[in-house]
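As a warm-up, study this chain.
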Amino acid sequence: MKYLTATFEDIEKKYGKDVSPLYKEQLYEPLMISPTGHGYQGVVLQDKKQDKIISHLTGKPVQTINTSHVKSHGKALKIKTVPEYKAFFGLSPKIPLVSQAISKQLSERAHRMIKTTKFSSIRFNSETSKQVNEKTREQRIASSRAIREVTSFKNKHGLCQAQVDARLLIVRSIVKEPLTTAHMEKYDSTLLGYFRRKYGTAKGVAKALKIKTGQKYPSKYTDLELIARLRKFVIDHGFCPNYSETVKYGLPSDSTYNRHFSSWERVKFLAGVDGILKAKNGEEVLIGYMPPMYE
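Now compare it with the structure written out below.
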């Protein structure tokens, strides 16, 4: 293990009863201790009595973590800005690094500005509006994917490295025999889903974790056959069925697709469904364009 971990009880022992993680009720244990030894990755500690937050750089309570604070104490880590601070310590770009009192003041100021600001209406023609919507959609997807990689997001879903290792250890202790993906499906299916999204297929999970797939019977289809059948259906019929309608339209079952690819979005991505439908509707499709994948 290349990291140190701590529980909520450890935090209380180190910092006292007045200090606790922000949004504690949304977090899972254990938490990873930051490289500086102050605070924890993806977590903002708040001192409720003093109404301050604990700096990851100094371990001391401060009203706000701004550029001046980061420049003064982040030289050894080569951190110069607040965004760099957040990235280094696994914090969400959206989380404010200020005390509750300052946060409340900023919120009230923003509300006052919204009430007094007159917004001008902007008109788009249909083509411009379509381009803006498509660009916005791609930006939202890219932003969503980036957020999923931040430690603060993983802490809320029990998916930071320490939590993943702990969950694997629990499953292994329950099984008491060589671990397989079938065991993971039974005892922690959400963790298996995380690994499937990360490694692509059950076979990929088994290879990465050096375990067996646990399948009792060999699959009837190969990955290429499943993708080819969906592509042919979309080309012939001009639409893509929903996840639960595959058998209805003569395709392999949804459980088969899930076992091979872990999600229907991944199947559609690999089959190039968006490009096929755009081409059928007479829309321009860029050669070599690959649509963004959902994690």
